[in-house]
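Internal QA ticket QA-208
Title: Verify multi-chain structure generation after dependency bump
Assignee: T.L.

Test input:
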Amino acid sequence: MSIASILNNGIKGMNATQMATQTASANVSNSATVGYTRRTTTILPNQTLIANSGSKRVVEPFIEKRLLSAKSGSGEASAQARAVSVLDNVFAEGDGSIGSALDAFQVSMANLGARPEDPATRQQVLSTASNLSTAFGNASAQLKTAMADTNAAVHADLTAVNERLHRIASLGTEIQKAEIGGEEASDMRDQRDVLIGEVAERVPVTVLDQGNGQISLMLGGSHQLVTPDGKVGELSTMVGDGGNIRIQKTVAGAVVDVTEQVKSGSVGGQLKARAGGLTEAQKKLDQLAYDITSAYNDAHKAGFGTDGVNNRNLFAEQPSLAGAAENFAVSIDVLDQPGNIAAAASATTTPSDNRNALALAAVATRGVAVGGQTVIEALSSLIGSSGSIVQNALQAESFSSGALEQIEALHQNVSGVSSDEEMVEMMKYQRAYQASLKVISMADQMLNDLLNIRG
Amino acid sequence: MRVTDSAVFDNVKRQVMNARQNVLTAQEQAGTGMRVQKPSDDPVAAAAARREKSRMALADAGVSATETATTQLEGTDSALNDVFAALTSARDLALENASSTASAENRTAAAEQVRMIREQMVALGNTNVGGRYVFAGYRDQTPAFSQTGTFVGDSSTKEVQALPGLHVKSSISGDKVFGTDSPDDMFSVLDKLSSALDANDPDAVRGLLKDLDTNQGRILAARTQVGGMIDGARVAGAVASQQSYNSKLEIGRLVEVDEITAATNLVQAQGALNAALAIAQQIPTGGLVGGK
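Actual output:
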């Protein structure tokens, strides 16, 4: 033991507390920094390790893992809600909606039954039929655009993912270099976590810590997107069956289909919305247009126009079920020819014979649509199911963002900055610093006293 | 538990945003009076409202169709009334001139009157209401009878739709009214009457009284029938009108919001927003850091 070692202790104490205060002050000034993880400085006995270990990021790996999956879940739900919300526009009631166009058309048929001889009433049938065709066309076009939008959104998301994968890979290399050289790499680690979080919002990923600052970033647990040695597997799209987009990963020229792994994240949400709600609505809309065409055509062919001719179509024949809503149109047989509307049941009793007009009006109450439903019932079910799809998607979005907030709160509890806590820490270290100063001044006094003995 | 700065602010931010969203929704409802504006607001109600709107539209069309039918039938009834009166005059003439007391001059004058009645009958048979010859069946754009009294119309009974599946009769055929499908039809009986009067033949005139009675019977039967049709059309129209009214109420119940509820919701939502904003302002800004 020597007085010099007392002096030395004082200096080490000052260094250690200075370091700790620096950490606390960095925490305070970064309390609102995105992705900032609070650091702690642990002062070990004799203050020996402090210079080597520096400050440490406070993270709980289990929470980080849950945070990533919550981000994927939330990204999926909000992408899906955004994509399917078009259904609300397609099936909302109002002027130009399929519902009101169909009502007007069926009413025009009922009116035809009341005034078959009136040219204006016949013209009304043609006008409402044409409006119905416009309504179907608009609805179909809106759904088509929405599907194209999901493809574009997937493409944009993957571009963003790839860009981040490269930055994650290069950060990994730099972190490794820095930490081997004994430097502090907390900021780069924070930055990498932010990037990984941004990837997780788009595609589901997990992180495998390989030590030495290296990680594997895995897609759906089985496909490496970033390897520990900094290689990147880029994601891209290809068009699969039925125009649905598929996701593939390219590593060193080899292409793997990874669509099945992309179950969440905004990309997963877009894929689900497209293959699910949007495709379903399009199919049902096509079915409805197809059923309306054949039911009204069958009834119309049985009747006679004012020229005594029968066997005419009211709507253009549908070549196939797919695309029926888009192709829905007034038949060339009656287009601009109100007299050709087949209101009569006999060639000799036109134009006032309304028997076939009554038969056409009765189509409204016959089970001519899927499942023996009337046309209106089928549309009503379609409105109900579309509304439920949107409502469920909105609820899922709100639920998953709630879940994400909860996990973010947990994450904050561990890794976030509390100004009060840091202020207390700083006071504590300030006191310790003052004490160390006092130690030095006392040791100095002791040395001084010792030197004065002989004097 | 550690309460971190960003947790505090995130929490307040979420509360304020939620409260704002609720105010917006309440404002929309109060402003438009609609609770369901798009299917996702309430899928079940939106689907049910769609069906009710269709019912209402078709019921309204039925109301209009039965009104048209009622007008046609009332015109028919009024024509039948005139036909009966004219026929009664012809019968009176026949009765007066069937006795031997009437003179030949009387009978000649009566014959002239009967010929005028017959012309009037053809005109009544060709009664046109709203552009339709009411006794001509489906061929109602052309007269039901030729000038000679031959039925050239269509002998069907027309129907209109009051509600889907509910049809009412809206016409009676001139064929049945004037008996042109049988040998003792009104026009030939009147022809025979004027001939018998011209021929100054009281026995023949007397012999025609039975045929005139038969024709009067036909008109009375037709009037009863048409009266029934008018009742039928009115009842069906009332049913359609009631359906329309019920559907309208139902649509209101399904998709609209009453003003009191809307206003209350708005006040509540605004209160919640004010509270959330007040909390936001109460976040301690200083703490150990100092400041206010």
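Spot checks passed. The radius of gyration of chain A is 37 Å.
Status: verified.
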